[in-house]
Amino acid sequence: MLKKIKKIYNAITTAILAGVLVLLLLLVGVRLIGLKPYAVLSGSMEPKYHVGSIIYVKEADPAELKVGDPLTFTKSGATVTHEIIYIIGSNDPEKILFETQGLTNNVSDGYIPVSSIIGKPVFTIPYLGYVSVFFQTPIGLFGAICFIIMTLMISLTLELLADKSKKAEKSQKPSVLHGEEDDPASDPEDNTLTTHINKEEKQ
Fold first, then answer.
1. Phi, psi dihedrals of residue 154, rounded to the nearest 5°
2. Residue 37, preceding bond cis, omega within 30 degrees?
3. What's the whole-model pTM score?
4. Are 96 and 117 in contact (CB under 8 A)?
5. Does an H or E element contain 133, and which?
6. Tens digit of pLDDT for each residue in 70-117?
7. Whether 79 contacts 38, CB under 8 Å
8. Which pairing describes strands 54-58 and 35-39: parallel, antiparallel, or unpaired?
């Protein structure tokens, strides 16, 4: 029974760890290939980017951006992703200005300088933003720590029980060296034969 429980537990923890590794790759590992993940917290870009999704932003050459492209930038300390609706060009790429607006907004964001641009979103994953935001909250962080501690404690308890069970099984096995079947003195026929030979020798 204990072996079965341990097998099921190992399968569950393996699946959870695999999920955690995938999340780490999607939320952290992508930075190694130049992508920055951002959670979508408003519906200004619906239905292109749904609330609760994650968008992956890559650095973009300002001279290659065009009207209709999504653009991620900073404004008043906030990170915003809206669509480019107008561009004021310049011979100096650093002086190009981009007018942006959310798909569901009635007014534009004004002109965004190149210095405020983070990059251009290249793809999105629905609902993953909820997970990212949750684990950045105190409750989410506390829950993750508690889960790790609980998993370690359960694993240790199962290992201790398994070791105890193995020792109990070993202690219950009969010893071959002390068995009566291998003891010549316990065989009446052997004793009789020995006695008979001794008598013949005496004669």
1. -65, -40
2. no
3. 0.69
4. no
5. helix 128-135
6. 999 999 999 999 999 999 998 888 999 999 999 999 999 999 999 999
7. yes
8. antiparallel
HSE-CB at 151 with a 13 A cutoff on CA atoms is: 15
Cα pseudo-dihedral 196, 198, 199, 203, rounded to 10: 140
What pairs with residue 71 in β-bridges? 82
Residue type, 153: M
Nearest-angstrom CA–CA distance, 35 and 63: 20
Q: Residues of the chain with pLDDT > 70: what percent? A: 82
Cβ atoms of residues 62 and 117 within 8 Å:
yes
- Token digits of residue 137: 């909250």
- Amino acid (one-letter) located at 195: T
Kindly state the tokens that stand for 98: 């981009």
DSSP 167: H
101: number of Cβ within 10 Å = 17
**DSSP strand pairing (117-125 vs 54-58):** antiparallel
